[in-house]
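Reviewer comment 2.1 asked that we show a complete input and output for one of the modelled complexes. We chose the magnesium ion case, as it is the one discussed in the main text.
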Amino acid sequence: MEQTFVMIKPDGVQRGLVGEIIARFEKKGLKIKGLKLIKVSEEQAAAHYQEHQGKPFYPGLINYVTSGPVVVMVVEGVNAVKEVRKLNGATNPLEALPGTIRGDFAQDIGRNVVHGSDSAESAQREINIYFQPDEICDYDYLPSRWLYE
Ligand code: DAT
Ligand code: MG
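Response of the prediction step:
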């Protein structure tokens, strides 16, 4: 099993999309192992987006992600990283297909509603920025036997 990190960004929370977005991950059969609503600190945002430091959109990105509460999640599945990024859709909502979260709910790359880690390694790094180990819950996810052969 693979874990990934998901964030419903401030626009997603403010626009009342939290339930809709979580429902998509649930219906896909992804196991939610951690879930909370938080305000992202400057330090967390800088650590999360360190790969983008120095790029023209970086200040706006940090401003955006720290501008209001977000929902952070630890999500598990056999190919959780890829499955989440597929459900999220392309980074730029203009290129995101209908049926994806960004394709259905966003229009602007700077307000693209949701984040998903780009690899298992990034996921572990990002989970550590936002979660304490005791906030991640291990439990029997009963649908597993109906999801995987
Ligand atoms: P993703 O969120 O799909 O992993 P990324 O890691 O390349 O995409 O970029 C992180 C976030 O930064 C992205 O969700 C939105 C913002 N961003 C990326 N490229 C941008 C650009 N050219 N202009 C404005 N914002 C951008
Ligand atoms: Mg990324």
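The pocket of magnesium ion (ligand 2) is lined by residues 118 (CB under 6 Å). We note this here for comparison with the apo prediction described in Section 3.2.
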